[in-house]
Amino acid sequence: MLNNFLTLIWIVLVICIFYFWKKKPNRKYMWGSIIGLIALTFLIGSLPQNKPVKDTSKSTEVTSVSSSSKSTSASSSSKSSAAASSNHEKKPKRNQFQKMILKHRAGNLELGTSKSDVEKKLGKPDQDDGQIVLYDNFKLYFENSKLVGGDLPAIQKKVDKKIAKEKQERQEEQSKVTGFAQSFGRKPVDAIQSMPSVYRTTQDDNGNTVYGWHPEGLPELVRVDSANNNTDVYLYDEHGKNNMLGEHLYHGRTIYQKQQVNNNGYDY
Q1: pTM here?
Q2: What is the DSSP letter of 50?
Q3: Domain housing 201
């Protein structure tokens, strides 16, 4: 009853704001209505959800043939009433304003929020099958008890933003890795061999010289210098070709020594 009365006042305040803004401009009354609306919104949102009231009243038993039949009938009636009450409590009643507040709170949830924290903010769900949680007419999706999505537009927008960000990060990393691979492939052999603490050197079964390099914050790279003076750089992949070669990133001629420049600016 109180919720319905407060909701009626809330609607009146909305009408007052429009009236003192458009129909009969009055800044004082308009701001007073706005402040009242905000205060009333928080008040209604903080009120507990309507809970179903259990019906404890029992119809008067008509005189029956035996006292044992009365006892059996009363017991059966009590069980049916308890079962109906239990089913009724699964989905609490909410008025339209409470539903609006519930959706607003759900839309403010951040991806990755634990299920326990979601229940603290929204209350017990109407249904919960472990991965999909239902509140009124919207759903929230969980993986490993962490919020990963939902069918509310506000949450779907966050999911789309996360996907776009992850895609951009992958593209930036791929571009960075490609640049490091080109630098690795063009590095002279003598420069690589002079830094054994940075580059590891081995020989494969085909007699090729293999160098490994792990740039900080990036995947490990593998350089293969073949006997015919070709250099190829790959991503390291323990399940790839020859137990190490993943995606191919660079191909070029092998550079053995850094070109030196004389005083006239010419290579020799």
Answers
A1: 0.53
A2: B
A3: 184-253
